[in-house]
Amino acid sequence: MINPLTLRGQVLGALVQGLGGVFLEHLAYDADGQLTTGSFADYLLPTTTDFPKLRSITQGRHPARITPLGAKGAGEGGAIPAGGVIANAIADALGGARTNHLPLSPDQVWRLAEPLRA
Q1: Up-side HSE of residue 21: CA atoms within 13 Å toward CB?
Q2: Are 103 and 17 in contact (CB under 8 A)?
Q3: 26, 37 contact by CB (below 8 A)
Q4: What are the pLDDT tens digits along the chain (118 aa)?
Q5: What are the chain's domains?
């Protein structure tokens, strides 16, 4: 770890990016194929106020053997698993409801929970 603060920033930034993809970011098109979320008023990007306080914990310091400084990439680790982790948590909470697309907006989760309300 070359700079612990940089590592923390990369990990937390990636996690917020991944959560943004799960809950906020959505490319929507009308019936004619026209993009309807072409501005930041319609296409939501995550900001620091969209999620609760997050923290990262570094477990171990094992330098890479194949780089001159022993450095590794750290920015992808939070973004890559977010969709699957959150979708599986929602499926588990809803008794096995399945979804295969993101974002998981509140109305999408409501529709997944419909069998439980019946």
Answers
A1: 16
A2: no
A3: yes
A4: 778 888 888 888 899 999 999 998 888 899 999 999 999 888 888 887 888 888 888 776 788 899 888 888 887 888 889 999 999 999 999 988 888 888 898 888 998 888 887 7
A5: 4-57+70-117 (3.30.365.10)
Report the C-alpha gap between 4 and 70 in whole angstroms: 14
Q: Are 70 and 63 in contact (CB under 8 A)?
A: yes
In angstroms, rounded to a whole number, what is the distance separating the alpha carbons of residues 107 and 21? 16
Q: Which residue has the tokens 């699957």?
A: 84
- For position 60, what pLDDT does the model report? 65
User: Token pair of 111, please?
Assistant: 């529709």
CA-angle at 94, arms to 109 and 99, nearest 5°:
55
What are the tokens at 69? 């400084």
Give the count of beta carbons closer than 10 Å to the beta carbon of residue 16: 20
The pTM score is: 0.78
